[in-house]
Write a structure and sequence with these properties.
Elements: H1 3-8, H2 10-16, E1 20-23, E2 27-29, E3 39-45, H3 51-65, E4 68-73, E5 77-79, H4 85-93, E6 111-116, H5 120-125, E7 129-133, E8 140-144, E9 147-150, H6 160-164, H7 169-177, E10 181-185, H8 189-192, E11 197-198, E12 201-206, H9 212-227, E13 233-236, H10 245-256, E14 261-264, E15 282-283, H11 286-296, H12 302-313, H13 319-334, H14 336-350, H15 359-372, H16 387-402, H17 409-420, H18 428-457, H19 478-491, E16 496-498, H20 508-515, H21 521-534, E17 540-542, E18 545-547, H22 550-563, H23 573-594, H24 605-618, H25 624-654, E19 658-660, H26 683-691, H27 701-706, H28 708-723, H29 725-730, E20 732-735, E21 746-753, E22 756-763, E23 778-780, E24 788-792, E25 798-801, E26 804-806, E27 816-820
Parallel strand pairs: 1-4, 4-13, 6-10, 13-14, 14-15, 16-19
Antiparallel strand pairs: 2-3, 5-12, 7-8, 8-9, 11-12, 17-18, 20-21, 21-22, 22-27, 23-26, 24-25, 24-27
Length: 821
Amino acid sequence: MTFARAAKRVPYLKKLGISHLYASPIFTATAGSTHGYDVTDANEIDPALGGREGFDLLVQALKKAGLGLILDIVPNHMAASLENRWWRDVIAQGENSPYARHFDIDWSRRLTLPFLGEDFDIVVGKGELTVKPDPETGKPAFAYYENVYPLVAESWQGREQDVLSLTDPARIAELHAQQPWRLMCWRDAANELSYRRFFEITGLVGMRVEDEQVFDDTHRLILELVQSGAVDGLRVDHVDGLADPQGYLTRLRQKAGTDCYITVEKILGKGEHLPEAWPVSGTTGYEFIAALSDVLVDDEKIDRLREAYHHVVGRTVDMKAELRAAKLLMVDRNFAGEFSTLLRLAMDISNTETPSPREEAVRQALRELLIAFPVYRTYGTAQGLPPADRALLQKIVEKVNASRYAPDPAALGFITRVLTGEVAKNARDEAAHFRTRFQQLTGPLMAKSVEDTLFFRQNMDLALNEVGAEPLQRNFSLSRFHAEMQTRLERQPNALSATSTHDTKRGEDARARLYALTEAPERWAECVERWREMNKAKVSPLDDGPAPRPAVAWMIYQALAGVWPVTLQPDDAEGLKALEARFVEFVEKALREAKQRTDWVDGNDAYESAVLDYARHLLSPGNQLFLQDFTTALLPFIRAGLVNSLTQTLIKLAAPGVPDIYQGSEALNFSLVDPDNRLAPDYGELERLLAAQEHADPRLQEGWSSGQLKQSFIARLLHLRQQKPSLFRQGEYIVLNATGEQADNVISFARVENDDALIVLAPRLLFGALEGSLNGAVIPLPARLAHRHYRDILSGEDILLNDRVNLRTIGGFTFAVLVSA
């Protein structure tokens, strides 16, 4: 999406009711980047997007239409790419580079460059590493395919021609040993990396923005754009990766000014809140997605779905044990290098202890503490841990000590004292360094264990496997949702409320549809059993077991149900082919993320091929027996999902928070995990639907199946928000409890500020009543809402309410957004 293309969409966004365009990173990234998070120059607007000129034209178009601009910024990391001038300079000069400490590099050893396909000796022996003139400078450099690594001057000055003529492997290895860096195989990165990376991505190197000079150098253009008025807000990517998030945010607020809208990408655990001292408007809203499941999951029936899943798996799944296994894998393999660094730091500090704890005891204690950590991180600084984090750490330590895996208490006590800063005076600096590294590891460890491992292994209901969700079994209830919204209003009323993002595991409407599985668990289980029988000939008997196993087949059928286009028919060969291309890519990713029979690191081609062939067979036009059965069986789930979709849309637009409408999600979004969810929407179709929305009739199927009705609801609510901003941002959140036979099938709440009032009514758990009628529900009104005239902005009706809302009075259509007249 270039600036010029985005500018052409501004009239549509204006008509929809959007207040701000919210852009992914716009700064120069690696060539061909599809996302922009691999920044190579933080002080240049990417020429591939249109450069500064294109950016300025977009800003002009937005301002002319009265829209603002929010930018996604990436302070945690940059691309470890030769396209990055700073990184290239570090390679050319080592520690003498002025940027040597801009990057989070451990300079106690040689900088590791894990970009070889095989071990160094093998690469050199094959003649794949040569010495050639650098195309940019003409000076000697190592060349490995298209990559060129400049050699430090000391290693070739005075003998340039001799170095350039090197072909002997031994002499090339000798020259390599003279560099302040070493090339190595990418497979060794998890164990031997000398720089902090973003999660497991070695191509993204951590930045030391806690250093004021680094902050200034990486934020010069960002702050210029804010201070000039071109940019109204900033979304801070992966704030938990920073050494000192609060210090960074305080400096950013001081530089950006009080009017700049700032949100942080932060995953909140159960019961966790943003630190009150952070000068931000709130999070980017993943916790809001998790809260919506309390509205749309049938808590009375979900256990039956869980039982059916366990039957397919062949055992009762212990999610606590599964979470532990995923975290163990991450600690012992994927983050082995980071763990070893922590252990080394701890052992250095242990020398100040009497008696000094044994290394093996410290290893076990550190491992168990990391595994037991229930949130992304604590926020200690050089001064130690804040009181709330001290209390949290103490709870975790007590839990670890009481567990069956309890390590040596003395070793665990030692690590606890290091984290709290209760060490010898001469070890406090080392303890602060350990604390920072520990805090920078717990977040990636949690994310990769839960979001990118466990959520691809355990697939009872894929709707619940979402960023920000709790992986462990819990209850779902409306009262919990209402309580969270009241807390949201109190603590972060201006946080984003998300339902789809570039990081969500599936689009919001796919999730809404899959929530409905909890309403009909037996029916779903019977369907999966029948479909597996229909397609059993395509299950491959491999040496390590059938492919796919029943549990993986369950996941495949559920993922297919979530992504299935509303109007796709079994005889539409072209539509099936288009879906197959996207779906197979998802299945491949799901298998690798699960890290069970195949992996991104160690692939199992036979297994992957067999499962992908199975997935292709499901979508083959010749597989009509299955396709006819699948589409017929899916119909009630599709209808229930569309109801759920509208309900979650109304809630997002009216509950506390700022609704974030991800590209194309104003209509229906059945996307799968990235890159599928980053595909460009059909803006032409979206504009056509919006132009015709005045004629959208909620009684007509076309409006539901095209997404036009959802888009219409969004447009009406967004324009109402613009008319009554104070009501939506500051208005009280009042719970309205329904009574009557269908009381559990409606969610209702009000927003009130002074004389302004808004009542929201929406259906839930309507799988068994697909016409959407709620004639058996009545909503008593408190005195401040009763005996008033309202207008339903969805239907256009004027309504006089006495002391209750009888849903039969709302035009026979369950959804209602009533605004006081």
